[in-house]
Amino acid sequence: MSRRGETIELAVLGLLHEGPLHGYELRKRLNLMLGWGRVLSYGSLYPALKKMLRSRLISEDTSVPAPVTGRPRIVYRVTESGREEFRRQMADVGPTAWEDDTFGIRFSFFSSAPSETRLRVLEGRRTRLEERLARVRGDLARNPKKADRYASELHRHGVESVEREVRWLSDLIKAEREHQEHRTAPGTATP
Amino acid sequence: MSRRGETIELAVLGLLHEGPLHGYELRKRLNLMLGWGRVLSYGSLYPALKKMLRSRLISEDTSVPAPVTGRPRIVYRVTESGREEFRRQMADVGPTAWEDDTFGIRFSFFSSAPSETRLRVLEGRRTRLEERLARVRGDLARNPKKADRYASELHRHGVESVEREVRWLSDLIKAEREHQEHRTAPGTATP
DNA sequence: GTTAGCATGTAAGGAGTTACATGATTTT
DNA sequence: AAAATCATGTAACTCCTTACATGCTAAC
């Protein structure tokens, strides 16, 4: 169910909010952010930047020479339309917001999202993970002949990892709710 | 670094070792095995099966009618050359063996791999994860201005998850070594 | 009667990788 | 003298997804 989607685009938009950057530097930051195994290639980043230029989400500045090699370095900035797009995407609470690839990126920029959106995305993510746990457990119950040591060990570890993430999300949701509650007038909560 | 690679092929080969299966059933098993978010589409499975037919890794049997719909159901079997290929891949100890997508599949079929290979793959995987931890920690040390609550919270959780997986691997490695030691003559271990 | 599950496929397209191409500077 | 880091790109390709196409049976 949908693992696609402009992963890089949102991350670039978010990073450029903190200040202008050139491609090479951008890739390093992106790798830190997407981290955990994914190493983005230039063949993927540069075409993505060109595409974003064409759709006016960012603008380029070729006039800055690189300090180390004399070569012209291309510095990118978010445009106003890019800022709008970023805001729009960060306020989105559709299913794509809590899928594996996108969740991490959105979470990284959570400070830029309204508290209400944060809560919805966290809850959506938790529900998705709980659905997976339910599915795996159901399949396991219907298919109890699995005797292989390694296959079941992998399963056990997988389930535990997901359960751990669910607990992590629950803590964050709780904190987010408490934060919301002392912003709204106490005693005026929806009954 | 390389997340591609015939992920499905190895999994299909492994599953068919346990007995012949048709596409629809194969997809269900595959989804359980790759689990955790990945839901394989038919548009991905059927062409892969055709390709494997062409390269003679599997053979088809069209003569079996489906019990539920009367429609002809296509049952696949591993060929001898498929078994060879599976053995070859399961004995492989190159870097692809411990990358994210492939590691899980190889691990699932670890019973079919020689104990030596298991040990190498587990150690390779652990080393890979430790390299990632080192890289992330290094980047963090060089870049200490990260003050954003959410970004650093995500990082913390990521590091903890990877550390957990490293501990899991260490336990498995230990068990695998003990298993090897009581197979080789005791007291003859390499000094 | 309509939803869910069984069952197999194709065509178009997206997102990203690998490999190639180039070249300067700094560190080992 | 070699390797690493800086810096930007293109072309070909791969793997996989989405959407489409078809039709039957069982359960609600």
What does this structure look like?
- The first copy, chain A, is mainly α and 191 residues long.
- The first copy, chain A, contains 7 helices and 3 strands, in the order αβααββαααα.
- The first copy, chain A, folds into 2 domains: 3-100, Winged helix-like DNA-binding domain superfamily/Winged helix DNA-binding domain (Arc Repressor Mutant, subunit A, Orthogonal Bundle), CATH 1.10.10.10; 114-184.
- The first copy, chain A, has helices spanning 7-17, 23-34, 42-54, 80-90, 100-108, 115-142, 149-181; strands spanning 21-22, 58-65, 72-78.
- In chain A, strands 1-3-2 form a 3-stranded antiparallel sheet.
- In chain A, a hairpin with a 6-residue loop joins strand 2 and strand 3.
- Chain A is flat, with a radius of gyration of 21 Å.
- Chains A and B meet through helix 5, helix 6 and helix 7 of A and helix 5, helix 6 and helix 7 of B.
- The first copy, chain A, binds a DNA duplex (28 and 28 nucleotides) through residues 2-8, 22-24, 40-44, 46-48, 50, 66-74.
